Automatic annotation (TrEMBL):
Class of the enzyme per the UniProt entry, highest EC level: hydrolase
Statement: the UniProt record of this protein carries the keyword Transmembrane: no
Record-given protein name: ubiquitinyl hydrolase 1
One GO MF term: cysteine-type deubiquitinase activity
Domain DUSP per the UniProt entry, residue ranges: 1-90
Reactions accelerated catalytically: Thiol-dependent hydrolysis of ester, thioester, amide, peptide and isopeptide bonds formed by the C-terminal Gly of ubiquitin (a 76-residue protein attached to proteins as an intracellular targeting signal)
Gene designation per UniProt: USP11
Pfam assignment, any one: UCH
UniProt entry keywords in alphabetical sequence: Cytoplasm, Hydrolase, Nucleus, Protease, Thiol protease, Ubl conjugation pathway
Length: 737
């Protein structure tokens, strides 16, 4: 630290010696009368009154204390026009010294660097004195926010950031130039504005609503921009910056801070956003500074907005921390003292080391209660927080959209929206659907339909987690069993259209077919598995096919052999080919023929097919055109449940906070040392909000972490978040204060 102890005055030695002789002789009329104090010999010229160089104390000049000087001045006066040479006594390293030669600096404004004045400063002067000198010399309006740059003789420029620094500490020396710039009305600085904007004055003309200002995406920087927008709209913090209160509180020495650079860069963004002169602001300098201090934000990849916000709040806090020397504070145990007392002590201790606009605005206090599972020792601590990172309740329910296909051939598949337990089984889906359709769950089969085929037919005890939201799930109503004793066969039915020409060359019956329409699942008594019976059954069930009256005129000619080849038999006889060919020939006049197929709907049966029988009904293109209305058959209707808005997407903030404050047991990796048991214990821990800040930041954790997984939670509806915001006030009221 350099403090001016007092000051001395430079007096030319000859005059001084003469005065000394005069005084010693005591002869008031002697010729040794010194006359007016005259320092002429010390000056290079009598225009600038610059001191000659290399003058030596006690040879060329004497130093007299201020008191003596004033007496001398009163008695003898001074030669007209000469300035008194008042010099400070400065505490230079190791010795006290009178600064005979002050630092001589050139001062100018950035807007007119031709107009330079020269001014002298003591090494003990603060940079602030330079600001005063420039403002006075160039009539800068008071209160203007300014930045100083020092230019050395090699014309390199450096910011003089800390105006509380001394001339000596800032390494300012004679011959250097200090340039001052004042902030533009649009929040930018003249020296950092792109050249092109200097010439276009129109850029200044936009007058929008201050604060309503976009931030340019610099490539994946929406995480940064969203955090900046949130903070920019936090009134107390933005006012603090707009009123330039931060200038007085910049902490250049905090080792935990960023030498005030983050705070300055943030201030620049805010001042520009709130100038009302920009549609949008390019936060490039800010991003560079952030990347400089936190390299994880350097590139242009996507980051977590909360991570940046947390870094920024911390950086701003340390850059603006009013505490310059953090003292060590030993924490006292609660020792059964009342909560209020312990909490106040914790808050006081926190403020003794952390005192900034960020603490004023955003910091609150948690109460954390740990209970030892063995000795039941209760430990209460109060810890400061800057934001709440609350979990989102994991929904235990799931909304599924499924198509219900009733037995009624004229009813179109109806799309239903059902709510099922997330961990439920297929039977739960059937039960939920049963409530809407009044069809017993036992009369339903659930299948995943893909490309006119069954991708999978589910068993009732299969887990619903096998079903993805994007799957097309069809639930089929099965016919009521009239004779309980008779065995029922679940028949999967595909619709195929024969291509126009048959591939005779291959010698097989695998004529080209194309699947179309929705497949069907039917429950058929084993006794009704003859071709004829099936043909009639299918006719009845086919939606959009010709009315029954017409069908009956085209009886199906079925042979005993056909019966052998019942589609529902899992393993058909090996000699099926000739029979099938004959069947096809005989059936030329029927609407369609029936083929046993595999699950893919092709005639070749692969090995390893399950017990599930699949049949296809093959339509002749002509017949299909005549009797089957494909457009009608593909249609579906929406059940009323589809109109009901999905309710569970709304999450109340209160729920999140309740989850956050739920009692939890510490994990193995992070036990608590119980002072009574003298060992680590898996204590139960409960967090409570003890005191809330003026502005509470709530971070909704979109990821739920368990030991091994990171599950992204769906936030499907922005409506849910909106509700959160409107809940804020009530949440605040319900907390302690
Ligand atoms: Zn214990």
């Amino acid at each position: 630290m350099m403090l001016p102890v007092c000051c001395r005055y430079v007096v030319e030695r000859r005059w001084y010696e003469q005065w000394k002789g005069f005084v010693e002789t005591g002869d008031q009329n002697s010729s040794s009368f010194p006359g007016q104090i005259d320092n002429t010999e010390l000056f290079e010229d009598l225009d600038s009154y610059h001191l000659k160089e290399r003058l030596v104390e006690n040879e060329d000049f004497m130093l007299v204390p201020a008191e003596a000087w004033h007496k001398l001045l009163t008695w003898y006066g001074m030669v007209d026009g000469q300035p008194p040479l008042e010099r400070k006594v400065v505490d230079l390293p190791s010795t006290l010294k009178v600064e005979v030669y002050p630092v001589e600096i050139f001062l100018c404004l950035h807007s007119n660097m031709e107009n330079v004045i020269t001014s002298q400063f003591s090494r003990a002067d603060n940079i602030r004195e330079l600001v005063f000198a420039i403002c006075e010399a160039f009539s800068v309006p008071p209160g203007s926010e300014c930045r100083l740059w020092m230019k050395s003789s090699d014309s390199s420029c450096e910011r003089l950031r800390n105006i509380h620094m001394s001339v000596l500490d800032a390494c300012l020396s004679s011959g250097m130039t200090v340039i001052m710039e004042t902030r533009n009305a649009d929040g930018t600085w003249p020296s950092s504005r792109p050249q092109i904007m200097n010439s276009v004055e129109d850029q200044d003309s936009y007058r929008g609503q201050p604060g309503v200002c976009g931030l340019t995406n610099l490539g994946n920087t929406c995480f940064m921009n969203s955090a900046l927008q949130c903070l920019s709209n936090t009134a107390p913090l933005t006012e603090y910056f707009l009123q330039s209160s931060y200038l007085e509180e910049l902490n250049f020495t905090n080792p935990l801070g960023m030498k005030g650079e983050i705070a300055e860069a943030y201030a620049d963004v805010i001042k520009q956003m709130w100038s009302g002169r920009h549609y949008s602001v390019v936060p490039r300098v800010f991003k560079t500074k952030v990347g400089h201090f936190a390299s994880q934000f350097l590139g242009y990849q996507q980051h977590d907005s909360q991570e940046l916000l947390s870094f920024l709040l911390d950086g701003l806090h340390e850059d603006l921390n009013r505490v310059k020397n953090k003292e060590y504070i030993e924490l006292r145990d609660a020792d059964g003292r009342p909560d209020q007392e312990v909490a106040e002590e914790a808050w006081r201790n926190h403020r003794r080391r952390n005192d900034s606009v960020i603490v004023d605005t955003f910091h609150g206090l948690f109460k954390s209660t740990l209970v030892c599972p063995e000795c039941h020792k209760v430990s209460v601590t109060f810890d400061p927080f800057c934001y709440l990172s609350v979990p989102l309740p994991v929904s235990k329910e799931r909304v599924m959209e499924v198509f219900f296909v009733s037995l009624d051939p004229y009813a179109k598949p109806a799309q239903h929206r059902v709510v099922v337990p997330k961990a439920g089984k297929v039977s739960d889906l059937c039960s939920a659907l049963s409530e809407m359709t009044s069809i017993p769950p036992t009369q339903m089969v659930v299948a995943d339909v893909f490309n006119h085929r069954f991708y999978k037919i589910y068993n009732t005890d299969e887990s619903l987690s096998c079903i993805l939201d994007r799957d097309d799930i069809f639930v089929y109503e099965l016919s009521v069993l009239e004779e309980q004793q008779e065995e029922q066969v679940l028949l999967a039915l595909y619709l195929r259209e024969r291509s126009h020409y048959r591939d005779y060359g291959s010698g097989s019956s695998s004529y080209g077919t194309t699947l179309f329409g929705h497949p069907l699942l039917l429950s058929v008594p084993r006794s009704s598995c003859s071709r004829e019976a099936l043909y009639n059954l299918f006719l009845q069930r086919l939606p959009g096919s010709a009315p029954p009256a017409e069908q009956s005129q085209q009886p199906c000619d079925t042979t005993e052999e056909d019966k052998q080849e019942e589609a529902c038999s899992p393993s058909p006889p090996a000699n099926e080919q000739p029979a099938k060919r004959r069947t096809c020939r005989k059936r030329r006049k029927s609407l369609f023929t029936i083929q046993a197929v595999n699950s893919n709907g092709t005639t070749e049966r692969g090995s390893g097919e399950g017990a599930q029988p699949y049949v296809a009904i093959d339509w002749d293109p002509e017949m299909k055109k005549r009797f089957y209305n494909e457009n009608e058959a593909e249609k579906y209707v929406k059940h009323a449940s589809m109109e009901v808005p999905q309710q569970q997407t709304t999450v109340q903030l209160q729920e999140c906070i309740e989850l956050f404050t739920t009692v939890e047991t510490l994990e193995e990796e992070n036990p608590w040392y119980c002072p009574v048991c003298k060992k680590h214990q898996l204590a139960t821990k409960k967090l409570d909000l003890w005191s809330l800040p003026e502005v509470l930041i709530i971070h909704l954790k979109r990821f739920s972490y368990t030991k091994f997984t990171r599950e992204k939670l769906d936030i499907s509806s922005p409506r849910g978040l909106k509700t959160c915001c409107s809940d804020l006030k009530s949440a605040r009221l319900q907390a302690n204060w």
